[in-house]
Amino acid sequence: MHRAIAVAIALAWSLQTVAATDIPPLTFAKDGTFHITLFEDLHMGESAFFYSSPASSPAGPEQDAKSIAVMNRVLASEYPDLVVLNGDLITGDHLSKDTSTHYIDLIVQPLLDHNLTWAATYGNHDSAYNLDRDALLKREQGWPNSRTRKMVQGRDAGVTNYYLPIYASGDTDGAGAPEMLLWFFDSRGGTYYQEHKNQPTWVDKSVAEWFTKTNDELVHKYNKEIPSLIFVHIPTRVSLVTQTEIDLDPSREPGMNHDKPMFYQAENYCDDGRQNHKCKGGQDMPFVEAIANTTGVVGVISAHDHGLSWCRTWDDQLPGIPDGKGTKLCFGQHTGYGGYGSWIRGSRQIVLTDSKLADKDFDTWIRLETGEITGSVSLNSTYGQDQYPEIKDVKDECPVCDGLKTPNGDNHRSPAGLALLLLVFLMQIMI
């Protein structure tokens, strides 16, 4: 036990300032598949030591330890080629300026333990008065397995706007044309660092223009359309319209649908940029139109709404929305014990198959913190017509908590559980 605690302390007080190393390019496996595991809405540090109410502070380390336990349990059953952290990694509202970015060290430890690389988008809670998005990226990039980048400059653009190519099996040096592009977009939100000013909650028009221009350049360079999959934390109004205008059939489109209506990009923003709950936004439409006008977008994966976990088809039947040509819109599964909602935690899995990309087909399921699989579907041309079992939709009783207890199940912590709790606590108080 003392050794485990010593290791936890060493980890908590150390920061690997490794130089960025060349990570091998992403490639499809020999069987033609590429597996992505999504973790979203971890909300680390939400009940941290720096909360104004001392009574709330003990919940912080335990809540964060549960979130890490969910990640570890998922990775005990899934063997992805890439992990995507799809926003709201941290809740920055009440953290210390000096230590707010340190939570990324805790988040990536399970990924490092499994020798996995990852790519992140940042969410609205990843910006706060004491949490700087750029500083978070710098800290994250200190770890050698991070693929997160910043490809668009400017205050209005946000930070995590970039793409990652996936090459054919065997193309380990990326010499050929990509078989697939993974796009990551920053929907911003929260407040500007050290300012009492809100950030807009949509993908900026400049980023939408960069997306179109960059994709066109790649098409010209490789002389072919390249299928794309998009990750963005806050969903666009397209997802809202699919939810409010078309009834969801839980046996054909399995998934939780508790956030009705959902929270979406530019919600409560007026045309002139003022915030008012009566306004319906619209500033995300340049991004929506850019997606609709890009050939080969197989899906858009969002997070943010903890009570949603469905997938639907974006077609030409949505009022006021351009034709999505069959692009799939999906939510993941709330992973963290931070944030609102007590639905069972988990992680969406996505498997891309190179032979199916031209038809915009891919497979997906949710791995729950219990170890069970739910919502396994094939997102193909008949999705929405095919019958599937309804998803497991329950309020959780913290199944991962057993891993933090001693083997006899008493109220004391196991050595590993105690070490993890101590690590989280030290992350919250170190300066």
Overview of this protein structure:
The strands form two sheets. The protein has a seven-stranded mixed β-sheet, with helices on one face. Strands 4-3-2-11-12-13 form a six-stranded mixed β-sheet. The chain contains eight helices and 13 strands. With 431 residues, the chain is an alpha/beta fold. Helix content is 23%, strand content 17%.
Key features?
single chain; 431 residues; alpha/beta; seven-stranded mixed β-sheet; six-stranded mixed β-sheet; 8 helices; 13 strands; disordered N terminus; Calcineurin-like phosphoesterase domain-containing protein; Calcineurin-like_PHP; hydrolase activity, acting on ester bonds; signal
The strand order across the widest sheet is 1-5-6-7-8-10-9
Average pLDDT level: 88
Oligomer: single chain
Indicate the percent of residues in helices. 10-25%
Helix and strand pattern:
HEEHEHEHEEHEHHEEEEEEH
What proportion of the residues form beta strands (DSSP E)? Answer: 15-25%
Number of H/I helices: 8
* CA-based shape: globular
End-to-end Cα distance, whole Å, is 25 Å
- Cα-atom radius of gyration: 21 Å
Number of strands: 13
Q: What is the structural class?
A: alpha/beta
The profile of the biggest β sheet is: 7 strands, mixed
Low-confidence sequence ranges: 1-10, 12-20, 49-58, 406-412
Protein name: Calcineurin-like phosphoesterase domain-containing protein
Keywords: Signal
Pfam families: Metallophos (PF00149)
Domain Calcineurin-like phosphoesterase: 41-306
